[in-house]
Design brief:
- By secondary structure, this protein is an alpha/beta fold.
- The protein is about 45% helix and about 15% strand.
- Strands 1-12-2-3-4-5 form a six-stranded mixed sheet, with no helix packed on it. Strands 6-7-8-9-11-10 form a six-stranded mixed sheet, covered by helices on one side.
Length: about 375
């Protein structure tokens, strides 16, 4: 993993050098002072994300409004770099066949900004995915159907305003769920801005008749699993870490700890703790080992997140390669799997070629496995 991030950093720096050089070429006829201003402004933006993380880690606090703006600039520069490199490479290819074409940088800049505006608007309006599922096990009592809203990857922190969180919660409550499930990465990189903005109060507005449950993701560990656990205790959310909770209707919720914990229980060990005659829903943030889950024969539905479906194209192609199931619904044997692209994002506030979403499972339960 450190090698991966090192390669990512090198690629980012090389991409920015490429953009910067092409920008200077576009300003060739402009005075030197303008070039200096361009250079200073450009590299301030390019290095902003590094600066804000260092400053935030050292100070532990900064005014949210300032941190939010700096975070958007710094993280947004990642996607800006990606698309500028792609468009500049295309316009440079055009110049090979048409030497008189001199507007590659301007065209690339306009296309990139247009795409970023679209991506931001698209991110601000999450989709609702409705997935009907039939589980061949009975619920106790008269209930035969449940409406379950499942979300993942909220990444609350410097990138999330209280207004955006409020809009998301209103959208979730409008579905009138019986049950709300959160598949990890509720917190982004630190609980400090989340506490500072009183986001626990907003989370306590979530409404589900049978409760709200979550399992940790890798970002809960990045933020400090103890701090995150303490914060979650301030809300109505129940955190499940390698534990099983049986609801009054007989539905079993299995919350698997994130693979960031090397000592977490295996899926086989967790399966042994369940009652195979009752419905079982598994929350596991990172969608690895799906065949192992299917092989247990007890899990009826697994909900995961983590991948973001790549967040922006063409990174969605990469997640499709890295994960057995990187996005969407699939049924294997008797197990239903869903990997969500997430209600929000890590870092750049753009969705290009992917969507933010909440998932509504319309679950029907039958008495097919009842003993006669």
């Amino acid at each position: 993993m450190p090698v991966f991030f090192l390669l990512l950093l090198i690629s980012y720096l090389l991409g920015n050098i490429y953009i910067f050089v092409r920008g200077l070429q576009a300003l060739e006829q402009i005075s030197g002072i303008i070039k200096w201003i361009f250079g200073l402004s450009y590299w301030t933006g390019a290095l902003m994300l590094v600066v804000i993380f260092i400053a935030f880690r050292k100070s532990g606090q900064m005014p949210f409004s300032l941190g939010h703006i700096l975070f958007l600039i710094g993280s947004g520069w990642l996607v800006f770099t990606l698309y500028m490199v792609i468009f500049l490479a295309c316009t440079d290819l055009v110049r090979v066949f048409n030497h008189s074409f001199q507007y590659g940088f301007v065209v690339s800049l306009l296309l990139t900004f247009g795409l970023l505006v679209y991506g931001y608007i698209h991110y601000r309006h999450p989709n609702r995915q409705v997935i009907p599922i039939t589980i061949n096990k009975p619920l106790e009592g008269a209930k035969e159907k449940l409406r379950i809203v499942a979300i993942s990857d909220w990444h609350l922190g410097l990138g999330t305003t209280t207004k955006k969180l409020r809009e998301d919660i209103d959208f979730i409550n409008a579905q009138k769920p019986d049950l709300i499930l959160i598949g990890g990465d509720l917190i982004d990189n630190s609980v400090a801005p989340v506490i500072d903005r009183g986001m626990d109060g907003e989370l306590n507005r979530l409404q589900a008749t049978m409760g709200i449950y979550m399992t940790p993701g890798n970002h809960e560990y990045i933020s400090g699993i103890r701090d995150c656990s303490d914060f979650i205790k301030r809300t109505q959310i129940i955190l499940l870490r390698d534990s099983i909770l049986t609801l009054p209707c007989g539905l079993q919720l299995v919350g698997r700890d994130d693979r960031s914990n090397p000592n977490r229980l295996s899926i086989g060990d967790l399966a042994l703790l369940t009652d195979s005659s009752r419905p079982v829903i598994l929350l596991d943030h990172q969608p690895y080992g799906l065949d192992e889950v299917e092989a247990t024969g007890v899990v009826d539905l697994q909900f995961s997140g983590h991948t973001h479906n790549g967040q922006v194209f063409p990174l969605s192609l990469l997640t499709g390669y890295l994960f057995d199931l990187s996005y969407g619904y699939e049924k294997r044997g008797n197990t239903n799997f869903y990997v969500s692209s997430g209600i929000a994002l890590w870092g750049p506030p753009f969705r290009i070629g992917t969507c933010s979403e909440i998932v509504v499972f319309e679950c029907s339960f039958t008495a097919g496995n009842e003993k006669i």
